[in-house]
Amino acid sequence: MGRRRHGGVPVSFFSFQDIITTVTGILILVTLILALDMTTTVKRDAATDPAPKDNSATRLAETNAAIESATRRLRALSEALADLPQQSAGVEKAQHGDLAQSNLALTAQVAELEREANDAESRASAAISQLAREQDRQQQMQASLRSADTDIKALKDHGNVRLLPGAQGKTPILIEVHAKTASVGRAEANGELVLTQQIAEADLAAALTRLEQGADAERSYFVVYLRPDGVTLAARMIAMLEASRFDVGWDLLGEGQRLFKE
Question: What's the whole-model pTM score?
């Protein structure tokens, strides 16, 4: 057997136990402080809001309300999608009817415009034809007036009576032309000149027509005596008489000469 040693230093655990006790006391103290702080916080919250809301229940209610709202919107959208084909068919039918009516109205308007254009074209053609006839008539009158002016100038140059071919052997109808009037008469067998009527410038065409109707172009002819102030009126009378196929002669009268006695 071994021998027990005597007289050594004894081992002591007092320091370790002291450390363990101190740490344990500190942990207990910290735990008490935390518990006291939590208790104080809960009491303060209870004092400020005696009936706290249940946040979970509130969020659940809001979520359910959002789900119901989305469900209602989805149901309405589904119904709208279901009605869309019928609405589209109705709109298409209405639009087709409107287009058909518009086409009919436009067709009627086009036909009316075509009729108006044809009428306007017809009126324009008639107006053009009438204008052409009027221009021809005016050209003939101007040619007659130019011819009469030429003959009058020749008469002024020569101062003699000019009888057209075929006038010999016919009875002359004498006309003395003034500025605004003309005197018509005849030559008697004894050579006396007799005044039969006066013609005003305003009644020139009608009076010459009556003279022509009362005379025979195969047996009578006209002799026009021009006074210096009656050249223009005489030119008109000569043109009208020649247009009626009467033979016409001219002569000039001086300032103091008169064909018929007053």
Answer: 0.37
